[in-house]
Specification:
CATH architecture of the largest domain: 3-Layer(aba) Sandwich
Strand content: 15-25%
Largest sheet: 7 strands, mixed
CATH topology of the largest domain: D-Maltodextrin-Binding Protein, domain 2
Order of helices and strands: EEEHHEHEHEEEHHEHEHEHEHHHHHH
Number of domains: 2
Radius of gyration: 19 Å
Helix content: 40-55%
């Protein structure tokens, strides 16, 4: 197998692995993903699992926030990406020509309390200083679930300290300038590992309390394919799901290899990756009926609490027909 070396150009790390001997004529596909996306896409990349399904694949690792990655898809610089499910829905209602073809991982968010802050329940956050990147889907989701499940508003009933990025929250917590942070893996796990914080509530637990659902997994990361590429190459939907399924099998069946790959891509310390691996709620793949029902429930909550605006989110039939693409 021939592989090109990873190179860095203009802040975008590219690692193209055509796997020419295995490409079966399905053509080229450009898959980009967030460096800290935590969705097993790293495994698709490093094992060239799209190549195993007949594609000549070029993989791009995008550091930083989700916005630039969404822009890459919208401008057709790439054909498919991984993305926060809530942000995918927001981009869709804003007119980005995309379809959700599959899921990647369950919710990754958590509320982390400073170890010596005296917080033991979610309700204890009232009046306390809480750091958050307010514009993120994780903050909005956790705010909505807390409001629905516990009856108080994190944005109004706590003292929100606005951070610009996860490292800022970690610094604020370490300096004891805040009592808690609202963040996501693997940042949350790193804070707990260092002994600076403890899990006050995980997003999956907030979801269970707010919705009463004891089965199914709310999704943090999904796969998006640009409509133009999907129209010309409909096989990518099934093959991307199959590649994700293969990656999930490696995630659970070969944990040492999975951790090695994730560490290589994220550049995080091995002990942090090991803890985050253990704390991950669930790696997912495909788009089965039960999962679609859960996703529609997520969209309804996001619409109910104002993150999403379009009337489409109140019409499950339209969501299934226009937002999802099921191979």
């Amino acid at each position: 197998m021939i592989r090109r070396r990873t190179f860095i150009k203009g802040g975008l790390a590219l690692a193209a692995t055509p796997a020419m001997a295995r490409a079966q004529g399905k053509g080229k596909v450009k898959l980009a993903y967030l460096q800290l996306g935590w969705a097993a896409t790293e495994i698709i990349h490093k094992e060239d699992l799209l190549g195993r399904h007949g594609w000549q694949a070029e993989y791009s690792v995008v550091p930083g926030a989700p916005g630039p990655l969404l822009n890459q898809l919208a401008s057709r610089n790439v054909d498919a990406i991984d993305m926060s499910f809530a942000l995918a829905a927001k981009a869709f209602e804003d007119g980005v020509p995309l379809r959700v073809t599959g899921v990647a991982t369950a919710v990754l968010g958590a509320i982390i309390a400073r170890k010596d802050a005296g917080l033991s329940r979610v309700e204890d956050l009232k009046g306390r200083k809480v750091a958050a990147v307010v514009g993120t889907s994780t903050f909005f989701d956790i705010r909505a679930l807390t409001l629905k499940g516990y009856g108080f508003d994190l944005q109004k009933d706590t003292q929100i300290v606005t951070a610009t990025a996860p490292p800022d929250m970690v610094t604020l917590l370490g300096k004891k300038e805040v009592d808690a942070i609202i963040a996501w893996q693997p940042i949350t796990d790193a804070v707990v590992l260092r002994g600076e914080g403890v899990y006050l509530a995980k997003q999956i637990d907030l979801w269970r309390k707010a919705t009463g659902r004891t089965t199914g997994f709310p999704v943090h990361v999904c796969y998006l394919v640009h409509n133009d590429f999907l129209t010309k190459n409909p096989a990518i939907a099934r093959d991307l799901n199959d590649a994700q399924r293969d990656a999930v099998e490696i995630w659970y069946g070969k944990p040492d290899r999975a951790i090695e790959i994730v560490q290589d891509v994220t550049k995080l310390p091995k002990d942090v990756v090991q803890v985050a691996y253990k704390e991950t709620v669930k790696m997912l793949s495909g788009l089965p009926d039960e999962q679609v029902d859960t996703l529609i429930a997520q969209l309804k909550i996001n619409k109910e609490f104002g993150f999403l605006k379009s009337d489409i989110w109140e019409n499950p039939d339209r969501i299934r027909r226009e937002f999802f693409y099921r191979a």
